[in-house]
User: Fold these one by one.
Assistant:
Number 1:
Amino acid sequence: MKTFLPKVDVQRRKWRVIDAEGAVLGRLAVQVADALRGKDKPIFTPHLDAGDFVVVVNAEKIVLTGKKETDKTFMSYSGWKGGEKYRSVQQVRAAHPERLVMHAVKGMLPKNRLGDQLLTKLKVVVGGVHPHTAQNPETMTYAG
């Protein structure tokens, strides 16, 4: 018996929108990562991209639990000597609040070419208005 491989129809991908206002970052990121991978569909296959596009709005109103707002830091390295930079959550939120959501979701996706491809389907928007209304997105409910 042969292994069944589902036909992934790229033209039939849905667009989903989720409001991040008051949502806990990690719990929201799990839902978004599952929708990007297609884990909530019956045709899920680990090595195929069967997920949907996801638009996250109100990224600046995301909530972190515990002391993460003050204690958590993000490190970046330029590749040069002394090129390490450390930024707190407060600094990242002030400059680019959408990066908090992107960073959390990226950590929950596969670390390979499939993960890079899945991350291109994530659109994070600061504010309540997004430019993807022409795609008629469905609303996802935050279950946190």
Number 2:
Amino acid sequence: MPHELSVNGRPTLEHVDLELLDSYRFPDGAGFPELYRAFIRHAGWARLFGLWLIYPPVLPGFADGLQGRGENLTARFHSVYREGEEEEFEWMVEPDADWSLPAVGF
């Protein structure tokens, strides 16, 4: 039996760039997964389980979105993984991945 996604408060979509949500392409040519797009349309900007911030693509003039804060966080993650690879911290990509995965642009 599937669970219904619930949202605390009233989600807003005024700031979400729905066109970019559907047309955005990552460096590998893939777009956002359908479940992510459905989540954004349902919840907008969100904090998942009180822990992870979900940054949707936002319209110009909004800073807390994929293009602003999301890009900054992605750059930081890439930096941490590059340092881990240089230091040969294999635990950072174990047990199923290799260093090519974090090297992929987001």
Number 3:
Amino acid sequence: MKIVVSSGKRKTAIARATIREGTGRVYINKTPLENYMPLMARQIIEEPLLIASDDLTSKIDIRINVRGGGTMGQAQASRIAVARGLVDYTKSADLRQHFVEYDRTLMAGDSRRKEKKKFGGPGARARKQKSYR
């Protein structure tokens, strides 16, 4: 039995996907993908499964364990983990090329993070105003 473990990160969310032979079931934190909410997050996670062929996705089971961040960050981390796992499972350069052509962040990830707040203002860049009057 072939098992592949892959990971994906987005902001502070970290997802680990385990891919093994099965019947096409996908679980996120022990919740079936069909029941995962919100709908937009579910659609984000489904993207790599839709790009990959149906005969591949119907022969494997995917279990995703994701922690940290918000719902959309978790969904995007899960999406990266699934895409990387499918490429590792199939060892297909063609599938990898399809993912990169569709959206490069499926394989590469997005390195942007929140900028740290500094002193002298309410945010990272905003400062207190001066009037001199």
